[in-house]
Amino acid sequence: MKTDLEIQTNVMNELKWEPFLNSSEIGVAVKDGVVTLSGTVNAYSKKISAENAAKRVFGVKAVAEEIEVRLSPSDRKNDSDIAAAIVDALKWQSAVQENRIKVKVENGWVSLDGEVEWEFQREAARNVIINLNGVWAVTNNIRVVPKLTATDIKQKIALALQRNATIDSQKIKVEARGSKVILSGSVRSWVERKDAEQAAWCAPGVSSVENNIELKSEILVPED
Q1: C-alpha pair distances (Å), 31 with each of 7, 34, 60, 62, 104
Q2: Chain CA centroid to CA 42, Å
Q3: Distance between CA atoms of 112 and 104, rounded to whole angstroms?
Q4: pLDDT digits (tens, 9 = 90+) for 73-116
Q5: Residue of 61, 62, 82, 63 lying closest to 71 (CA atoms)
Q6: Other CB atoms within 10 A of residue 114 CB
Q7: DSSP track, 110-152
Q8: Is the pTM above the cut of 0.70?
Q9: Calpha distance 37→27 (Å, rounded)
């Protein structure tokens, strides 16, 4: 079991490992395995990168993200320019059906609405936007419209978990209620927990995932 000090050190080192980030801009506090990130960055994508870096660290139970985005004068754009850049970016993203997505920009805050068939399309639309200049926040209201039954979804996710080399699928239970998936059981690391959740999101028709998987570190008993 990692101590809070060890987790804090590892998270700080992980932030330094990200070439896109200036780790001196980000504060890291840890209590009972819960990491709180604070500070100020000049791009929304840096805020997301810091959060993802912290989640990769072994022993992290949850991340409270309090990083503030402050755009430099050179990075500020008017809402019309931002909206136009988003529309063009969506057209170049093959995974996204841009005609099914509506974009609203207000003071650099982007809101996405519409319907898609897959979660990866929903995420692709968001990921295209977070790196654009002038954007300091994104609200993704795009809905995943299910086309499969709950039984079909459950079976596809169970098979996906079995194929994944990083996941012990026997320790994970999958339940589907309509287009909502509920995961339970236990895993050895945050990465394994995240991989299981990602496998569930990749199933067609999934609109939400409730991840109740617990983190349990294995205790190794030395051999005689």
Answers
A1: 10, 5, 10, 10, 38
A2: 20
A3: 7
A4: 777 888 999 999 999 988 888 777 778 889 999 888 899 999 88
A5: 82
A6: 19
A7: EEEEEEESSHHHHHHHHHHHHTSTT--EEEE-PEE---S-HHH
A8: no
A9: 6
